[in-house]
Design brief:
heterodimer, A: mainly alpha, 15 helices, globular, disordered C terminus, B: Ubiquitin-like (UB roll), 3 domains, 6-stranded antiparallel beta sheet, 8 helices, about 20% helix, binds FE2/S2 (inorganic) cluster
Amino acid sequence: MTAIDPTAHLTAEQIEELGRELDAIRDEVIADRGERDAAYIRKVISAQRKLELVSRGVLLFSFFPPAWLLGTAGLSVAKIMDNMEIGHNILHGQWDWMRDPKIHSTTWEWDHVSPSEQWKHSHNELHHTYTNVIGKDNDLGYGIMRVDEDQRWHPFHLGQPLWNFINACFFEYGIAAYDLELGKNLHKRRRKSPEFRARAKAVGRKIRKQVLKDYVIHPLLSGPSFLTTLAATFTANLVRNIWTHSVIMCGHFPEGVQVFERRSITGETRGQWYLRQMMGSANISGSKAMHFMTGNLSHQIEHHLFPDLPSNRYAEVAVKVRALFEKYELEYVTGPLPKQVFSAWHKVFRLSLPNKKPKVKTPDREQELVAA
Amino acid sequence: MVTTPLLPSDYLDLVSPLRAGADLRGRIEAVQPETGDAATVVIRPGRGWRGHTAGQYVRIGVDVDGVRLWRAYSITSPTNRQDGRIAITVKAIPDGKVSNHLVRRAKPGTLVQLHQPAGDFVLPQAKPAKVLYLTAGSGITPVMGMLRDIEFDDVVMVHCAPQPQDVIFRNELHDLVADGKLRLTEVHTDTDGMLDIVRLDELVPDWAEREAWVCGPAGLLDAAEEHWTEHGVRERLHTERFRPRIVVAGDGGEVTFSATGRTVAADGATPLLDVGEKASVLMPSGCRMGICFGCVTPLKAGAVRDLRTGEITEAGPGVLIQTCVSAAAGPCDIEQ
Ligand code: FES
C-alpha cells in the first residue's frame, strides 16, 4: 500500500520458501523447549512478586522521601514486569506447554484494568491475525489516530498528539476501553446488547478492585504515610503506562513499517502471512535489561512471527530471523528506544495534518470511530 | 483485595509451599534404588495431607523437562510412619516419561504436586483369617503397602517377575519369610514361563478360601476374574488395574474444547486427554489409564468411545467422561 512495495522483488515461490524456513526455526525452538525455559519464567515470576512485596513494604514508610523514591521505583519496575515479560507473554499462551495451571493463559490474571479474557480476544486474536491491516487491526492508531498517509484525514486528527499523550498516561484504561470497543459500542443500540453489558461489567469490576487496592487499601495500610503512598502508587501506574505505551508504539508505528489494505489479505498463504508480520513490525535494539523490561517486545518482529514461543527465546531466534531478512533483501526495522519512540511520535504529529489525497478509501468503520 | 489480581497464597507459596492451606504439594526427600529399573521415592507431603489407607495410590504431578505430568502410584510406606513421610515405588517402563524421570533423574529437594490418596484396593475393616496376595511386576507395590501396614496370621503371596533380581522388595520379602510372617512363592517368568492361573491349585491349594488381592498386568487380572468367578468365590477377589485394555476404535472427528475455545481434529484412537494436551488445553489428569477419575470432564455435545470397552457415550446434561480413556467417536464438545 505504500508507494513502493518493498516486497515486490520476491516471487510467490520465494515467499513460500521463506515461510518454510520460518516454520523450521519455530520447530527447532519447540523441540528444544524444556526445563531451562520453565525455570526461567518461574524465576521471573518469583522475582516480580518479591520486588512488589518489598516495594510495598518500603512504601509503608513513604513519608520519608528516600523510602518514597525507592518504593516507587521498585513498584514501577514490578508493575512493568507483571504487564510485559509476565502477563503479556503468559496470556499469549507462551507457557501453556508447561501445563502448570498457575502459569497458563486460561487462568492468568494481570495487574491491569482490562480483564485478561477481553484483552486476549482483541490482542491475540484480532491484532495478531490482522496485523497492520487498515480497518481490521484496530491497534493501528487505536481508533483515535491516523497512522498512515492512506487513511482519510479528519479535523479530529489535528488533536492526535494530545490524544496520544493522554492515552500514554492512562494507557491501561485506554486498553480496557479499546478491548471493549467502546467507540463502536457506545453507538446507538449496541450499548444495550447483553453481551456488551456483561463485558462492561467485568471491566468495571476489575477497575474497582485495582483502584481499591492501589488507591485505598495500601495507602490506608500505610497510616501516616497515606498521602505519600497514594502518590507513589499513582506514580508507579503512570510510569508503567507511559513505558508500556512507548514500547508498544515502537512495535508498529515507526517509519519504515508497512501497513496493508484490506483486500490484500484475502486468500493469504502462510508465507504471505509471515511476510506481512515481518514488514508490519519493528524492533528495539539494546541491552539485555532493555529487552527484559520491554517483555521482549523489543523483538516485536520475532514476536509477531511466533507469538506463542517463550519470550526468553526471541533473542536467539532474532539472529536467524535477521539472516532471513538479509537473504530475501528485506528491511529489518530496528533502532534504539529513543530513536524509535521519536520516529513514532514524529509520525503521529505529521499525520495529524492532512496530506495529498489518499489513494485508497478507508473503510466506513473508520469514520464511525472518528465520529464517536 | 490487598493482593488483587493475585491471591495472598501466591506470595506465601514463595516461602512456604508445604504449609497448611496451600495447594497440596510434597517435597522429594530421597530416591532409593530397589532394582535395576525401580526406585522408592520418599516424599514429605504438605500439611494438608490427610493420610492414606494401605493399598491406596496417590496422584502425583511431576515437572519433566518443564512440563507438568500427572501419574498415579501406589503408596508403599506404612500408614503409621513416624516421620510423616510417604513413599511410592516406581518401576521405569520403557518410554515412560514420568517413571524414568522419577527412577533415574529425580533429585531430593524437588517439589511435586499431590492429590489426596484414593483408591479402594484396600484391606477390609475386619481382619480376614487367611489372605492371598497374587502380584506381578510393579503390581507388588500396593500389596507391599499392605504387608508393611498390618500383620495377618496366615498370608500367602505368589509373585511373578522375569528374574529374581527383578523382584522389587526382595530382601524385605525374604526377611518376612524368615520371620515366619509370610509364605512366598516367586514365579520367574523368564525361566518358568507365564503363570497359568490353574497352577494356583498346586501353589496355594486353599486359594479359594482366602481373601485375595490381585494386582498386575491386564492378562493376569482377566484370568483371575474368570477363575474366581468360575469357582463361585468372586466376592473374595479384589483387583487393581494398572493398565487399561484398549480396543481398536474407529471414527474420530472435530473436538471442541469449549472453555478454552479451541477446536482440533482427533482420530478415533487417541485419548481426548492427549488431544487436548497437544492443543495446549489445560487438561486435568492423573493415572492416564482410567482408574483415578482425575480427568473427568463434562461432555457437552457429540459422542465419545471408551477405548477399553468400545462403548459409546453420548452427550447430555450431567454426562461426564474420563478423557484419558475416551476418544472422539465423531465431532464432540468437551468443557475444558
Ligand atoms: S487420568 Fe486417571 S482416570 Fe483418567
